[in-house]
Amino acid sequence: MTAIAKAAAVAWGGCRGTPRLVAQRENTVFDLRLADGTRVALRLHRQGNVDPVAVGAELAWTEALAEAGVACPAPRRTLAGELAVDCQGQLVSAVAWIDAPPLSEAPGDPVQQHHRLGATLADLHSAADRLRLCPVPRRTWKRDDLIGEVPRWGGHWLNPALDDAERTLLAEARDAARRQLAAVSHPDVGLIHADTLRENVLDDGALLWLIDFDDSGFGYRGYDLATALIQQIDLPGWERRAEALLEGYLSRRPDAAPLRGDLAMFVLIRGLATAGWIVDRAPHDDPRQRLYAERALAAARLYLGG
């Protein structure tokens, strides 16, 4: 992979030294300094199911967001003006390097961090609404994608760590969420990040930066807030963090006040989605199967009021 990264860097004018591997998850990411001295995150996009058109749309959107003042890494175009290139059968792109720790490692009061994050997500959504882009070919994150009969990430009921009683509980909660969503006449839907986990939020002390827009698309704005909360649902002080996140969001988007009554539903929806997501991404005896199942169960109990 390092050899591919170095070869791909030629499209940006070449690099200084050896690319440093910093992440190998859905994408493989290298810390790289280009020949002109600019530091970038060079991303080798996941092979097998990558749609170059969708990746181009993601980069075009984040480029427009960065130009609008949203704290996200601006794509670095190649010398030929392209947003991504093919190198040895691997789709590669580069974005500005953000020199800051993830929120999970950043010092500070978690409640205040969540208030700041709420404001940051509100700014993202408001900026997205103001953009005048051509139709962006991105996935959707709506009811059928998340809690339909065939969810995009797979059914939560297939999670091997669940027992029958737990599957029944999750089905009850899912059905209630379907009814609640169906009753919303004008849901707040638009371009969202869709993966606002703590590792995808960097804190430089002044700004919170949103990175990794791989899953971005059209969906419920409340889903972004729920994603920011789901990892901590079993931690002490979760309620205060959730309230701070919501207060920060509403301080910038006061018209989104209906989210107060919907947030627990969206946390449940994220929990269900990821309980299905892990099924095909880890062995059935992997502890993460139970971890994601437990989050979904905690969200279901919260949503159902018990």
Describe this structure in words.
The chain is an alpha+beta fold and 306 residues long. It folds into two domains: 2-96, Phosphorylase Kinase, domain 1 (2-Layer Sandwich), CATH 3.30.200; 110-304, Aminoglycoside phosphotransferase (APH), C-terminal lobe (Aminoglycoside 3'-phosphotransferase, Chain: A, domain 2). It has nine helices and ten strands. A hairpin with a 4-residue loop joins strand 2 (28-34) and strand 3. The radius of gyration is 20 Å and the shape is globular. The protein starts with a helix and ends with a helix. The model has no long low-confidence stretch (mean pLDDT 93). It holds the Pfam family APH. Belongs to the pseudomonas-type ThrB family. Keywords: Kinase, Transferase. One of its GO terms (molecular function) is homoserine kinase activity.
Structural class by secondary-structure content: alpha+beta
Instruction: Give the oligomeric state.
Output: single chain
**What would you report as the Rg, rounded to the nearest angstrom?**
20 Å
**Any idea of the CATH class of the largest domain?**
Alpha Beta
Poorly predicted ranges: none
CATH architecture classification of the largest domain: Alpha-Beta Complex
Q: What's the overall average pLDDT, rounded?
A: 93
SSE order in H/E notation?
A: HEEEHEEHEHHEEEEHHHH
Q: Output the strand order for the largest sheet.
A: 1-2-3-5-4
- Ends distance: 48 Å
CATH topology of the largest domain: Aminoglycoside 3'-phosphotransferase, Chain: A, domain 2
- Count of separate DSSP helical elements: 9
